[in-house]
Design goal:
The chain has 9 helices and 2 strands; from the N terminus they run ααααβαβαααα. By secondary structure, it is an all-alpha fold.
């Protein structure tokens, strides 16, 4: 049997039949991803000191926001991450074409930072250009529906220096990657295709920053209970049973059977409420609409914990 051919639309199929088949495939794909526990929140960035319990869905998103709302939620948080990298690696704000009409930025490093070595500098520069491309990509998809960059406080997790930048940046990307994994199943078509390409890039960044943190012996500052500590004295656990909730190199866990809080081989996911509690520095609080990295709140329709 030709399995490749069986997945394609027969030449004799009517327009309506082809449309029905495509719609059914989309439904099946979403059911599959929900079954894997990937139907949680939208993207985010990290703030140390939060303790938010795991959940696989968001009350905000379950109420039925549009895909435009979800992408704008992502754009808010890409603005935060990209602006943070821009001041640290380039010593200046983002290009004017990306931030026209944006809110004020406070807490930025006074000048371009000097990092621990040239390799780290090169990695962070590449991450910055990737993140700036994410902003441009989301703006291109959203078109006239895009939000402007909100007011930002880049020092909400403490003043960034060449020594602590990796610790802070690692929380940004760890939370972002796990939240992208949660939100991707809520998108379709071109929106899904675009976010599906952003997600692995965030995963590449997370792995690079985590490895640098391990190599440099940098402190671990969890954003919340979903982050897996990279401490395993003697590597005995990893050698015998793989990563667990008590230790591992990546933001995954390998226990069997899998649970909502410790997914076997899958990324942890975050809901929109979890993300907002982190970026607003409002752990465990609902009804909060500003604070932390966003002193005036996010722009768009998804902005309250």
């Amino acid at each position: 049997m030709n399995y490749t051919a069986s997945l394609q639309e027969p030449e004799t199929m009517t327009v309506n039949q082809a449309k029905t088949m495509r719609e059914q495939r989309a439904v099946n794909r979403r059911k599959f991803m929900i079954g894997l526990g990937l139907a949680g929140g939208a993207v985010g960035a990290g703030l140390t000191g939060c303790n938010v319990s795991n959940q696989t869905s968001s009350t905000v998103l379950a109420s039925g926001p549009s895909e435009t709302d979800i992408l704008n939620f992502a754009l808010n948080l890409e603005f935060l991450e990209t602006t943070f990298y821009s001041f640290a690696t380039q010593g200046t704000d983002l290009p004017a074409s990306l931030i026209a009409g944006s809110g004020p930025v406070t807490g930025a490093p006074p000048s371009k930072l000097t990092f621990l070595n040239q390799q780290i500098t090169d990695v962070l520069n590449e991450i910055f250009f990737d993140e700036m491309s994410h902003v441009a990509a989301l703006q291109n998809v959203l078109g006239s529906s895009q939000i402007k960059r909100p007011a930002l406080n880049l020092a909400a997790a403490g003043e960034a220096t060449g020594e602590n930048f990796i610790t802070i940046a690692r929380q940004f990307v760890d939370v972002g990657a796990s939240a992208y994994a949660g939100g991707i199943a809520l998108l379709t078509g071109a929106n899904l295709a675009n976010v599906a390409q952003i997600l692995p890039v965030e995963g590449f960044h997370a792995g690079a920053l985590r490895l640098i943190a391990i190599q440099q012996g940098l402190p671990f500052a969890p954003a919340d209970g979903l982050d897996v500590r990279t401490s395993d004295p003697g590597a005995k656990v990893l050698a015998t049973q793989g990563p667990t909730s008590a230790g591992g190199f990546f933001a995954t866990a390998g226990t069997t059977p899998a649970t909502a809080s410790v997914p076997a081989g899958l990324a942890f996911t975050r809901s929109a409420s979890q993300v907002l509690q982190i970026v607003y520095n409002a752990p465990g609080q609902t009804g909060v609409s500003k604070g932390g990295f966003f002193p005036n709140g996010l722009n768009g329709n998804i902005a309250t914990t």
